[in-house]
């Protein structure tokens, strides 16, 4: 039986048997001999289609149809009137009550089967479309919820970043303002003494020495504020450029050579470890910025003063769809207790030397948001640190 569940409603059992004989070979057929009983059956177990007589005692077919259409459980069940009333006015009235079709008695078995098949197909198509719409609406709601959550998380991260920048910049600005104010007071005092011919050489020499110290302090604090702003711009910077096919070995050699003025005067060495034929499709400007930041981080943190070391910039395939770019050093490794925090914005163990603590956070953000990959950094077994960019061999075009 491949058809649907059909309810036949007629007060004449002969009519019920005639309709059932036409349909029961393809459909599950139930019946009711009164309008009231039909409503009870339909409410308890809604059929897929109702064949409904009009002229019945008690509730007639029109009333039954209206009640079926007002019940949410049966509102979408198609109703076909099968009646001896054949005037156009009766047919129009039946359709106005909510029926989808109108068949007059005596009926043609072929016509009944065709009408039933048509309206069952339409109902199933409508239900399928409704289910698909509900599914799509659920997906839209979930997507909207996730976007709203992501927006809230971004705003929270932005607030944290802005608060961090404000805190970091306030310190050097406060020092600079204090130094400038103190220098201004000293200049005013010296100007008064000079005007009164009370200025002595020893006082002038002390003033000049103090002014030189204050000028140096001003210069260093303003430079620190500028470095913070530079790093902060790096978080949101559009590094531009288009995706290109990159031959990685010459690309890495070019990056290390461009950094020679930073590592060679310190006595360090740099090498490239990359297969000659390895390629990837990515944004070379962003890749270069990431690698330069990782090398600078190694030069700044890996080696104690006076110690010379080796920094290796490498690349390797990790399956057909992933490339690993790495910067490794043989330095001191990551200090115990700091591994879980080094990607946090403004976290640094060398604040006293001018470190801002944004470099690795910038690397993490760019690797994830702009290249569709991820970033890890950890101490190496045997000493040193390994920073690894896990990147798609082909950066997605929508990033």
As a whole number of angstroms, the C-alpha radius of gyration is: 41 Å
Q: How do the SSEs run, as a string of H and E?
A: EHEHEHEHEHHEHHEEHEEHEE
- Strand content bin: 15-25%
Amount of helix: 40-55%
Q: Report how far the terminal alpha carbons are from each other.
A: 53 Å
> Can you count the helices?
10
Query: Care to count the β-strands?
Result: 12
Query: Could you say which structural class the secondary elements and strand pairing correspond to?
Result: alpha/beta
> Runs with pLDDT <50, length 5+?
none
Strand order of the largest sheet: 2-1-3-4-5
Largest pleated sheet = 5 strands, parallel
Q: Please, what is the average pLDDT?
A: 86
Structural shape: elongated
Protein name: histidine kinase
Organism: Azospirillum argentinense
InterPro entries: CheY-like_superfamily (IPR011006), HATPase_C_sf (IPR036890), HATPase_dom (IPR003594), His_kinase_dom (IPR005467), HisK_dim/P_dom (IPR003661), HisK_dim/P_sf (IPR036097), Sig_transdc_His_kin-like_C (IPR004358), Sig_transdc_resp-reg_receiver (IPR001789)
GO molecular function: kinase activity
How would you summarize the topology of this molecule?
Elements: E1 5-9, H1 13-23, E2 28-32, H2 35-44, E3 49-52, H3 61-70, E4 79-83, H4 88-96, E5 101-104, H5 109-195, H6 201-236, E6 244-247, H7 248-258, H8 260-263, E7 269-273, E8 279-282, H9 284-301, E9 310-317, E10 322-329, H10 359-370, E11 374-379, E12 385-392
Helix pairs in contact: 2-3, 5-6, 9-10
InterPro entries: CheY-like_superfamily (IPR011006), HATPase_C_sf (IPR036890), HATPase_dom (IPR003594), His_kinase_dom (IPR005467), HisK_dim/P_dom (IPR003661), HisK_dim/P_sf (IPR036097), Sig_transdc_His_kin-like_C (IPR004358), Sig_transdc_resp-reg_receiver (IPR001789)
Modified residues (4-aspartylphosphate): 53
EC number: 2.7.13.3
């Amino acid at each position: 039986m491949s058809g649907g569940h059909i309810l036949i409603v007629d007060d004449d059992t002969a009519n019920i048997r005639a309709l059932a004989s036409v349909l029961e070979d393809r459909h599950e057929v139930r019946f009711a001999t009164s309008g009231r009983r039909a409503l009870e059956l339909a409410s308890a177990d809604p059929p897929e289609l109702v064949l409904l007589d009009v002229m019945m005692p008690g509730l007639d077919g029109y009333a039954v149809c209206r009640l079926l259409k007002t019940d949410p459980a049966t509102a979408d069940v198609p109703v076909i009137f099968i009646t001896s009333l054949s005037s156009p006015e009766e047919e129009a009235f039946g359709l106005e009550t909510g029926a989808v079709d109108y068949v007059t008695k005596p009926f043609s078995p072929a016509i009944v089967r065709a009408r039933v098949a048509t309206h069952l197909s339409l109902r199933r198509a409508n239900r399928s479309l409704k289910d698909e719409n509900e599914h799509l609406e659920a997906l839209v709601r979930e997507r909207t919820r996730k976007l709203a959550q992501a927006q809230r998380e971004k705003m929270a991260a932005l607030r944290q970043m802005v608060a961090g920048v404000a805190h970091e910049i306030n310190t050097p600005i406060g020092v600079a303002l204090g130094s400038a104010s103190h220098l201004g007071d000293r200049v005013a005092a010296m100007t008064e003494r000079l005007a009164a011919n009370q200025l002595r050489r020893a006082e002038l020499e002390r003033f000049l020495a103090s002014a030189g110290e204050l000028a140096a302090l001003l210069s260093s604090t303003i430079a620190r504020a500028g470095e913070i702003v530079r790093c902060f711009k790096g978080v949101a910077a559009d590094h531009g450029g288009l995706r290109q096919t990159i031959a990685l070995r010459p690309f890495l050699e070019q990056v290390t050579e461009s950094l020679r003025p930073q590592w060679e005067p310190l006595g360090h060495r740099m090498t490239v470890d990359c297969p000659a034929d390895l390629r990837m499709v990515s944004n070379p400007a962003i890749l270069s910025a990431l690698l330069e930041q990782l090398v600078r981080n190694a030069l700044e943190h890996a080696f104690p003063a006076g110690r010379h070391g080796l920094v290796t910039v490498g690349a390797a395939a990790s399956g057909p769809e992933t490339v690993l770019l790495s910067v490794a050093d043989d330095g001191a490794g990551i200090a115990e207790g700091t591994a879980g925090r080094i990607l946090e914005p403004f976290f640094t163990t060398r604040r006293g030397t001018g470190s801002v603590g944004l470099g690795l956070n910038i690397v993490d953000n760019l690797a994830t948001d702009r290249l569709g990959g991820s970033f890890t950094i950890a101490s190496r077994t045997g000493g040193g640190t390994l920073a690894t960019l896990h990147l798609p061999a082909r950066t997605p075009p929508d990033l």
